[in-house]
From TrEMBL, chain A:
Domain of life from the UniProt record: Bacteria
CDD domains xref list: corrinoid_protein_B12-BD
Protein family per UniProt: Belongs to the methylamine corrinoid protein family.
Keywords: Cobalt, Metal-binding, Methyltransferase, Transferase
Taxonomic source organism: Desulfosporosinus hippei DSM 8344
InterPro entries reported for this sequence: Cbl-bd_cap, Cobalamin-bd, Cobalamin-bd_sf, Met_Synthase/Corrinoid, Meth_synthase_dom
UniProt GO molecular function: cobalamin binding; metal ion binding; methionine synthase activity
GO cellular component terms, A-Z: cytosol
Residue ranges occupied by any B12-binding domain in the UniProt entry: 98-222
This protein's record includes keyword Metal-binding: yes
GO biological process: homocysteine metabolic process; methylation; tetrahydrofolate metabolic process
Protein name according to UniProt: Methyltransferase cognate corrinoid proteins
Residue ranges occupied by any B12-binding N-terminal domain in the UniProt entry: 2-96
From TrEMBL, chain B:
GO annotation (BP), single: porphyrin-containing compound biosynthetic process
Domain of life: Bacteria
A Pfam family recorded for this sequence: URO-D
Domain Uroporphyrinogen decarboxylase (URO-D), first and last residues per copy: 8-345
The protein's name in its UniProt record: Uroporphyrinogen decarboxylase
Amino acid sequence: MKVMVKSKEELLQQLSDSVFEMDDENVADVAKEYIAAGYEALDGVLKGLVDGMNRAGQMYEEEEYFVTDLLVCSDAMYNGLDVLREHLPQEKAAGAVNYKCVIGVVEGDTHDIGKNLVRIMLETAGFEMYDLGRDVPLQSFVQKAKDVDAQLICLSTLMTTTMPGMKEVVDILVKEGIRDKVKVMIGGGPLSQAYCNQINADGYAVNATGAVTLAKQLVGMA
Amino acid sequence: MHAQDQMTPNERLQAFMKGEKMDRILAMPILVSISHRVSGMTHREKRASALKQAQSQIDCYQRYGNDMMIIEYGLHGIGTALGSEMNDPEDSLPAIVNHVLKNLQDIDQLDFNKTKKENDPWFARTLEACEICQEKMGQEVPTGVLITGPFTAVSSILPTENLLRATRKDPASIHRLLRLCTDALKDIYKEYIERGIIILMCDPIASGTLLKKSQYVEFVKPYATELMSYIHELGGMCCYHICGNTTSIVMEMVDTGPDMLSIDNLVDLEYVKEQVGKRLPILGNVPPVDVLMLGSRSDVFESVKTCILKGKDSPMGYIIASGCDITQNVPVENIDYMMEAVRKYGRYPIDEALLNEPATDH
């Protein structure tokens, strides 16, 4: 019996829908079907999975989707990515800029849902993410940024007791003479634009989708 | 009694409940995470001793004349009793570093007997702290306990991300955990109520910043409602607080039946007054970070003025409070300013001209 091969567009739509509709269980099968049909993995990521995640982000922006929805959408995206990743081209196109971002929850704090959402959305937006996790020693942010030549550091905290750590990261960058090379973005429950100004960070975002807009703006990403 | 007041907090609260005359508006800044600073001890010293927990609250009251002392059972008590691991910072609020439950299949392995006062030294210590507060100051000022609500209790057992995912993927298991936590909380609340302590039920993980309304209605409301009726059966009183933006669930929260509603500074007091002011007294909502932590004396005065302007005519009454717990990084003088402003703008009869004067340097 001859099996009908679905069109590329149809499968891309299915990949996108699987993410958008939080179908984290079937998305891997769709991704396998897509690869088996011989379609380009990179398109599967960008026009399929990432497209779905962007649609989810849009719904989050419109307060139709909430944190839980974004988490399950991202589970679906990563499940699909696990299948497509090994088929991606190894070489980057010549002249392509890699936007690199170091992210983490500052020392003393272990609340990381907000940080995880921002990492997911920035990854979706095309940033190369270096996630240092939670309760991260302040010096590690700067060290990692130097090691990978990152343009952006994202600092998160939910606790007021750990807020001063953000200022310390900014101060370390100044002390090491690389403040002009790295932008610093902050986010988290108790923070505000006023605090951002006070510690001389480059930007504050109120939620994960706001963080994407701000990050692109700060690094000059089109 | 504070030198500038004419009534004790007990007398004031009694008058408030009966709708009788008071000297000034009730003021309940949530002085929990800051209290060791007022006493000049570290956070670790405070949490290690019932006497110091009580002393730090008494010190706050003696300095500020605030209308409620608050002992902290906290948000993580159930989880830590069951085996979630906490860090132990010298001078900051501990956080969970390792949740006891990783897999929802292992719910049966949790032993909720561990949450009882005989088996949980933390719980026992906070009860002792309450007893000390009551014994030393009970004639003058009420004591409350800041304690978790059902949903946050589950998040002290299971990592919050897993909890959120499971509301979608495995709701039955989350309902089981909520059932177990609600039953445990009943026994815990009972011990406080028997000591004459007001329950300040805080459920920050149920925040509108994390949950949508339908999740609140399905996973929080039934259990909170059950707890509220239980508190009332025992003759207790409950003030309900959820952090963050609760604008969309304010009605639902009030439907659970609390005696008072405390709102975060992310919610507009005017809106809440219109929605539910006829049903119960409202507490709120001086911003703890932008005003109390980062603001000047003038900022504190203006914020108190704004809150009183918005809240003063709430039909069932208004109590000025901070929008959330006040952290140890807040300058202790700013609480002096908050209370000074309350005594200026909140003195009865309210001086409308004073309240409506334009912003100035205080």
